[in-house]
């Protein structure tokens, strides 16, 4: 390497690496969209159904339609992220997601939620699921788990602020104004942040990824792992897809926590505060799981998270009628739910490598869409039928046990892929 090249690298190392700016931008975007809009949906369930006369299951169907749209758009989103400027994709996605959310405040017919849920889901695929892991994979060659954990911690931090705010807006301004204000806030804050902080990949700025030990090159380094074609033929692929399905079905209950609070006699303001505790749990879990996965591996970390979820549900069943126990159970459930955003991408990288991560994850993550399709309205219809969420909660314990089994199968399949010489 020339002396000039060495000086360039040394100078670059002395400055804050732009990877951290990318991380900051994605923290804000995912905090606003995932911590704010996505997790606030359940707070509107009771006031909207009461005001307009919808059934809980009928209203919850819009979550299911959103999940179907997510399922259809996920493979497309992975390829779009590989080809196009992420700033353009993120801005368009923010307008679709936050704009649709704001328009919910203008609806009187249930079909308004059903129709608007499609563009909202199309936008949220990139803002809440694909962009963060893909950009972290491009910009971070070390501290990958920590970076993903920080993003999900930001989701929790923003949620701690936005969820109680949404609950108070609903209580004092009405659900219509709450929808509109939240949607406008997300667009007003998110779009400028994207323009200032997001770039496609390090080579565009004459940089190498954080932690990259090779010299700056004009060509891309060849990553290790399994091809999408080989991955789809493996037991690990289907086990991981099932894991995504089950864990998303479990985490989907987060949208029903406010309604479960109402079942136990708590009001909407209390439910909003409880959702703040839920997001606090996500914040702690995101940081904890990201660091822990770097130290002991994603397999052990994921199993620990799942056991925490089982404990949370048992506490919610047995002690939920006590406010402090309800808040504790919700916090612990949020702690476990952080595993979806934090450990899902890390599991995919651990099992299949980074060679075709974007393509593989976008397909595996379709299990997440199916989980929402089935679980979100399903929980609502069970509640309508029996007037209680207790059968749902016992079912969630079974799903968490199934998740543990899927993780064990996925890692056993990883070893089989290596033995076949497919990892390279």
Oligomer: single chain
* Uncertain regions spanning at least 5 consecutive residues: 1-14, 214-220
Terminal CA distance: 27 Å
Order of helices and strands: HHHHHHHHHHHHHHHHH
Number of distinct helices: 17
The major pleated sheet works out as: none
- Mind telling me the C-alpha Rg? 21 Å
Structural class: mainly alpha
Q: Strand percentage, roughly?
A: under 5%
Q: Can you tell me about this structure?
A:
The protein has 424 residues and is mostly helical. Helices cover 80% and strands 0% of the residues. It is built from 17 helices and no strands. The protein has helices spanning 3-14, 18-40, 45-52, 56-83, 86-103, 110-139, 144-173, 175-197, 228-232, 235-251, 257-263, 268-296, 298-319, 323-352, 357-364, 366-386, 390-419. Helix 2 runs antiparallel to helix 6 and helix 14 (323-352) packs across helix 15 (357-364). The longest helix is centred in the first third of the chain and has 30 residues, at 110-139. The protein is globular.
């Amino acid at each position: 390497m020339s002396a000039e090249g060495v000086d360039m690298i040394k100078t670059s190392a002395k400055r804050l690496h732009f990877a951290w700016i990318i991380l900051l931008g994605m923290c804000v975007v995912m905090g606003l969209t995932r911590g704010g809009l996505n997790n606030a949906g359940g707070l509107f369930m009771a006031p909207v159904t009461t005001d307009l006369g919808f059934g809980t299951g009928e209203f919850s169907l819009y979550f299911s339609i959103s999940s179907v749209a997510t399922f259809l758009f996920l493979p497309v989103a992975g390829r779009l992220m590989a080809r196009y400027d992420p700033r353009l994709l993120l801005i368009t996605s923010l307008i679709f997601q936050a704009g649709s959310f704001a328009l919910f405040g203008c609806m009187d017919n249930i079909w308004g939620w059903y129709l608007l849920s499609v563009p909202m889901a199309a936008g949220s695929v990139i803002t809440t699921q694909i962009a963060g892991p893909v950009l972290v994979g491009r910009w971070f060659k070390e501290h990958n788990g920590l970076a993903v954990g920080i993003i999900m911690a930001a989701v929790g931090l923003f949620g701690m602020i936005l969820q109680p705010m949404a609950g108070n807006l609903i209580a004092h301004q009405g659900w219509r104004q709450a929808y509109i204000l939240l949607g406008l806030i997300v667009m007003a804050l998110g779009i400028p942040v994207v323009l200032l902080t997001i770039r496609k990949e390090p080579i565009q700025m004459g940089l190498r990824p954080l932690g990259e030990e090779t010299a700056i090159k004009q060509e891309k380094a060849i990553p290790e792992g399994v091809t999408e074609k080989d991955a789809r033929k493996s037991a690990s692929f289907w086990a991981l897809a099932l894991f995504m399905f089950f864990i998303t079905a479990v985490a989907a209950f987060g949208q029903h926590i406010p309604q479960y609070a109402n079942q136990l006699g708590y009001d909407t303001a209390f439910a909003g505060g409880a959702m703040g505790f839920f997001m606090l749990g996500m914040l702690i879990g995101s940081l904890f799981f990201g660091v822990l996965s770097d130290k002991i591996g994603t397999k052990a970390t994921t199993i620990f998270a799942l056991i925490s979820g089982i404990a949370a549900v048992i506490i919610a069943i047995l002690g939920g009628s006590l406010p402090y126990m309800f808040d504790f159970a919700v916090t612990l459930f949020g702690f476990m739910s952080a595993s979806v955003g934090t450990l899902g991408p890390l599991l995919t990288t651990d099992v299949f490598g980074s060679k075709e991560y974007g393509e593989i994850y976008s397909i595996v993550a379709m299990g997440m869409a199916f989980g929402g399709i089935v679980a979100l309205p399903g929980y609502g219809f069970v509640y309508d039928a029996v007037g209680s969420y207790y059968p749902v909660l016992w079912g969630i314990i079974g799903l968490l046990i199934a998740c543990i089994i899927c993780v064990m199968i996925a890692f056993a399949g990883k070893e089989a892929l290596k033995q076949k010489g497919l990892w390279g």
